[in-house]
Write a structure and sequence with these properties.
single chain, Rossmann fold, Zinc Finger, Delta Prime, domain 3, five-stranded parallel beta sheet, three-stranded mixed beta sheet
C-alpha cells in the first residue's frame, strides 16, 4: 500500500477537525443551518492554514446525501469522491496555471451543466489572485449571477491583488496563522496515533519553525520521522532544520547581562561552527528580546507569548534582570546590526561587534542615574549669613572696611573657618570683597557646544548607556539665550521621545552645563534637514577595513 504523507492523511474532514479556525467553522455552520449560502466565497490567509481543506469540507456539506448539513457523513459516495479529489461535481482549478481568459471562458461554458451526483456544482479556484485582469473581467457576470446549483470558492494568500469588482461579489472569510500551541496539540495527536516517540520540546520546535502553518509542521514531522525513525530527539530537529535552541538565546542574554563579552562571542562562534545560519540566530534573538519586553510588562501573559509555560517563567525571571530601557536599547542595536549586515553583505562582523558592545558596557548602565551634585546646581548664596562678631569699631583692623551683606553667587567664593565655624570671605589685594559673578556672564556659542559634544556623549554613556546611544544620533543645531536645540532625522521619533523623559533630559543638561561651565537648557526636534548618522559599529568596521586594506567577503 502506498505511503500517505501526514499532511494528506491527517487532513481535516469536517468543520470540527479544523485547527485554529474556530471563527470560520462557526460562520459556515451558521450559514448552512440558516440556509444563507452566498454565490461565492473568498478564503484569504497564509499558506497551510486550512483554506483548501475548508473548501472541500464546505463542498461535502453541500453535496452529502444528508445535505446541506453541518456534519457531512463522510461515507456516502459524494463525500468519499470529494475527499479523494475525484468528484465530477467539485472542480478544483489552479489559478497559477489556468489564469488566462480562455481558461475562464471554458469555465463559463461548463457552469451551465447540472451536477452529476450531488445537489451543487462547486468550483474551487486556488491562488485566484494569479488570474489575469482579462480573466477576472470574463468571470464577473457569471460570478454575480451563476446558476442556482453553482457555488464558487476562491482561495488566496494575497487578497490585496484581487480586483475590487471581484471582492464585492464574494463573501470574504479571513483565516489566521495557527498558534504554536495549537499546532503542538495537533502534532501530539498525530505522533500518539502513529506511535512515534517524540518529546514535547521537539513538537514545540517544529511548531515554531512552521511559522503558523499546520501543513508545514506536518511535513517537517514527516521529514524528521524519515530521518530519525520512530524516536525523534531535539538534537535531530536542530540538525535537520538548522534551528537555534531556546537555551542558547537565554544563555547569550545572560552573558550580556553579566557583561561577559568573551562568553558571548564564544557562543556566537559555536553557533557558526555548527553550521547554523546567523541571520536566523539574529532574528530569533530579536524575537527573544520582544518576549522579554512582553514578559516584563505583562508578567509573562501566556496569551501574548506563544510559548510553553516553563519558557514563559524563564522569560519572566530573566526580564527582571533588565530594565525596559535596556531591552529597547538592545533591540535597536541589534536591528542596526541587521541593516549594516545587508549593506556590507556580511552579518558576522556586525554581529560580533554588536555582542561585544552589549556585553562590554558597564553593568547597570541602563539604570536611572543617581543625582549628581554640581556647583552649577547649588542654590546661590544671596547673602552672608554670619560675619565675625564685632563689639566695637576699634576691634576692626584699619585695612578692613565693614560693608553691608554682599551677594555671593558661586560656592567657590565661600570659605569655612574650621575653628570658629564661621564663613569667611577671601579679600582682594586691596582688602576688598570680591565682586559677585554668575555663570551666565560667560557667553557660550554653538561652536563651543560642538567642541564638547563627543565628551558629553562619553560622559552620559558612563551613567546611562541607552541615553548616550540615542543622544549620539542628534546634532546641535541652534543656541539662543542658553537654550540648545538638538535636531534628529524625521524617522527618529523614538530617540526624541526617550530623551524628553525628565530624568534623561536632566542628565544631558547637567553634563553639558558642567562641560561648558554654563547652565544650559535643551530641546529636541525632528528636522528634515538632518540625515541619520553613521553608526559607531559601521564607522569602526570601515576604519578596520581601511587600516588593513581589507574588504568584506560575502559569507556562505
Amino acid at each position: 500500500m502506498a505511503y500517505t504523507v501526514f499532511a494528506l492523511k491527517w487532513r481535516p474532514q469536517n468543520f470540527d477537525e479544523l485547527v485554529g479556525q474556530s471563527h470560520i467553522s462557526i460562520t459556515l455552520k451558521n450559514t448552512l443551518e440558516k440556509n444563507r449560502l452566498a454565490n461565492a466565497y473568498l478564503f484569504a490567509g497564509p499558506r497551510g492554514v486550512g483554506k483548501t481543506s475548508t473548501a472541500r469540507i464546505l463542498a461535502k456539506a453541500l453535496n452529502c446525501k444528508e445535505g446541506p448539513t453541518v456534519n457531512p457523513c463522510g461515507k456516502c459516495s459524494s463525500c468519499v469522491e470529494i475527499s479523494k479529489g475525484t468528484s465530477l461535481d467539485v472542480i478544483e482549478i489552479d489559478g497559477a496555471s489556468n489564469r488566462q481568459i480562455d481558461d475562464i471562458r471554458i469555465l463559463r461554458e461548463n457552469v451551465k451543466f447540472s451536477p452529476t451526483l450531488g445537489k451543487f456544482k462547486v468550483y474551487i479556484i486556488d491562488e485566484v489572485h494569479m488570474l489575469t485582469n482579462e480573466a477576472f473581467n470574463a468571470l464577473l457576470k457569471t460570478l454575480e449571477e451563476p446558476p442556482l446549483f453553482v457555488k464558487f470558492i476562491f482561495a488566496t494568500t494575497h487578497p490585496h491583488k484581487i480586483p475590487s469588482t471581484i471582492l464585492s461579489r464574494c463573501q470574504r472569510l479571513d483565516f489566521r496563522r495557527i498558534l504554536a500551541m495549537e499546532i503542538v496539540s495537533q502534532l501530539n495527536k498525530i505522533v500518539t496515533a502513529e506511535k512515534i516517540a517524540v518529546d514535547k520540546e521537539v513538537l514545540y520546535a517544529i511548531a515554531k519553525s512552521s511559522d503558523g502553518s499546520l501543513r508545514d509542521a506536518e511535513s517537517i514531522l514527516d521529514q524528521l520521522v524519515s530521518f530519525s525513525g520512530e524516536k525523534v530527539s531535539l538534537g535531530d530537529v536542530v540538525s535537520v532544520l538548522g534551528l537555534i535552541e531556546q537555551d542558547i538565546l537565554f544563555e547569550i542574554t545572560d552573558k550580556i547581562i553579566e557583561k561577559n563579552a568573551p562568553g558571548a562571542l564564544g557562543l556566537l562562534n559555536k553557533i557558526i561552527d555548527e553550521g547554523k545560519d546567523i541571520s536566523i540566530f539574529l532574528s530569533n534573538f530579536i524575537e527573544h528580546l520582544r518576549n522579554l519586553m512582553v514578559a516584563k510588562i505583562t508578567k509573562a501573559d501566556p496569551n501574548l507569548i506563544d510559548l510553553p509555560q516553563e519558557t514563559c517563567k524563564r522569560l519572566l525571571q530573566q526580564s527582571q534582570l533588565l530594565s525596559l530601557e535596556e531591552i529597547f536599547t538592545f533591540f535597536n542595536i541589534l536591528v542596526n546590526a541587521s541593516e549594516m549586515g545587508k549593506r556590507l553583505e556580511s552579518l558576522r562582523i556586525p554581529l560580533e561587534i554588536t555582542l561585544a558592545r552589549l556585553a562590554h558596557e558597564k553593568k547597570g548602565a541602563g539604570e536611572s542615574p543617581l543625582p549628581v551634585k554640581s556647583p552649577l546646581e547649588a542654590k546661590p548664596v544671596t547673602e552672608v549669613k554670619h560675619v565675625p562678631e564685632v563689639k566695637h569699631f576699634s576691634d576692626v583692623k584699619p585695612s578692613v572696611q565693614i560693608k553691608p551683606p554682599v551677594a555671593i553667587t558661586h560656592p567657590s567664593e565661600i570659605k569655612h573657618n574650621p575653628i570658629k565655624g564661621q564663613i569667611l570671605i577671601p579679600l582682594t589685594e586691596n582688602n576688598e570683597l570680591p565682586k559677585a559673578h554668575s555663570a551666565q556672564d560667560v557667553s557660550v556659542t554653538l561652536e563651543d557646544v560642538k567642541k564638547v559634544w563627543q565628551n558629553a556623549i562619553d560622559s552620559i554613556g558612563k551613567v546611562k548607556m541607552s541615553v548616550a546611544s540615542y543622544f549620539n544620533e542628534g546634532s546641535p543645531s541652534r543656541l539662543h539665550n542658553n537654550a540648545l536645540t538638538v535636531s534628529f532625522p524625521l524617522n527618529y521619533s523614538l530617540h526624541k521621545e526617550s530623551l524628553e523623559k525628565k530624568e534623561n533630559k536632566v542628565l544631558i543638561e547637567k553634563t553639558l552645563s558642567e562641560l561648558l561651565n554654563n547652565r544650559l537648557t535643551i530641546n529636541f526636534i525632528l528636522s528634515q534637514d538632518v540625515a541619520g548618522k553613521e553608526s559607531q559599529q559601521e564607522s569602526l568596521i570601515k576604519n578596520v577595513l581601511e587600516t588593513f586594506n581589507g574588504r568584506v567577503i560575502k559569507e556562505g
